Amino acid sequence: MSLRKWAAAAFCTLGLALGAAPADAQKAGGTFVYLVQPEPPSLASFLSTSGPIGLVAPKIYDGLFDYDNDLNIVPALAESYDVSEDGKTVTFSLRHGVNWHDGEPFTSADVQFTVMSVLKEVHPRGPNSFREVTSIDTPDDYTAVFNLANPAPYMLRALSGYESPMVPKHLLDGTDLRSSDLATNPVGTGAYKFVEWKKGQYIRLDKNENYWKAGLPYIERIVGRFIPDASTRTAAMENGEVMYGAYGAIPNIDAVRLRDMDGFSVTTDGYSMINPMALIEFNTTKAPFDNPEIRKAISLAIDREFLIQNIWFGYGKPATSALSTNFAPTGLYKAGLPNYPANADVAGAIAMLDAAGITPDANGIRATAVLDLIPYGEDWRRAGEYMKQAMSEIGISLEIRYEDVPTWLKRIYADYDFEMNINYFYQLPDPVLGVHRHYGTDQIRQGTHFVNSSRYSNPALDALLAAGAQEANATKRAEIYGEVQDILAEDMPVANLFEMQFLTVYNEKLKDHATSALGAYGPFDRVWLDE
User: Fold this and answer.
1) The whole model's pTM is what?
2) Fold of the CATH domain 3-27+46-185
3) Signal sequence span per UniProt (predicted)?
4) Domain 276-500 in CATH 3.30.420.280
5) Beta 264-267 vs 504-507: how paired, if at all?
6) Using CA atoms, how far apart are residues 236 and 506, in angstroms rounded to an integer?
């Protein structure tokens, strides 16, 4: 069976499952209110992968594919695909009869423009996801032919509406992408149309009556509410004002309580595509963090198990490398690396600092720094307080800074005005998609969010990353990424803290909200209310 026929058959089977007419049990209509925490800085998901944007934009924008919870490809704007024998040509057959929310038809020209002029240019991860794409041919409105310099099988895992949203050429071509009106008034092909953004309160989306999936979506209106205070968010969940909170919107301390109450459930489903890792970014251009010894000492002094057990209530796994252990099945993860203790090695950290000549003053202070915190909720504030205490044990005095999302993003990724930053990154299904952007010299892209803010640059590592992206042999690829992890364990421009397990808290009246591997970053087109 040819690859094209195989893909078409698989798409047909999955498409019937996802696009079937509503069953008797599934009820159409209603308003679904969920938590968006914190308020997004914009809705330009083609510019930023900021988490709050992901909670809204994929309901408006589609990708070429979606993915089920086993990471199988599910058809979206592409109905099938064909990969050439040499892996250097990927042909997508696009869905007929799809319109943008303003009524204009979706065509292959939109795919070409999105990938070549938007995602490869201004998206945080697009330059890696589509690094091998040299051009896209559009022989007709429903065929897009990706021409690659080298095979890039990882690209097929980067085509969701969250990761690579298809955007309207007719509204963006010739404009300044970074100041586009679509940031506050998005136009997509997705299940819901943007209606209103009331700053500080909510975003409202209404059902797309002309959605290309017959019978979907079920919900008439979805409302993403912004509630800054954590206890108020939990109260809103308990009293039924909101029905769904993901990505820490309900702090773990409350989630573990709600899971034991009637009418509420907690799940870790819906996160299999993102592979999240909590971490510290160091500004390697500023003393004393230009010295890898202090970066490694800080990693040694962190009690990762304490963070997991006491702040995230047991949900997580200590980081042991620059790569998640979730890459172990593919052979890419390397175990046994130094400088990643599960429990704090304070004596080892002090000895490392002493050997490096980073000695304490008369007050016992070796270094002072500001620790910026990702502004996504109370768990991160508590992590910052822990870090302040832990670092004091090795003579590093920290000041905590917690700002709103736009200010934080600008400080870290535009101004580079930071020393240490607690954050989390998605490592995604392949290191090329989620890990390279931390470390590659070509990923020092000022003004682009969630890339190499450390401004770490190592030509030897750059060469390994390039080789790993192109290597087709699994054994050789594992060797390359083993070397990558060895270098990063010694240079430590980023100190991974723990592999995250996000919790979604939801009202049990809400059904079919975790059918996509993207979970809360999915389209919500099959969600329905059993009321």
Assistant:
1) 0.89
2) Dipeptide-binding Protein; domain 1 (3.90.76)
3) 1-25
4) no
5) antiparallel
6) 11
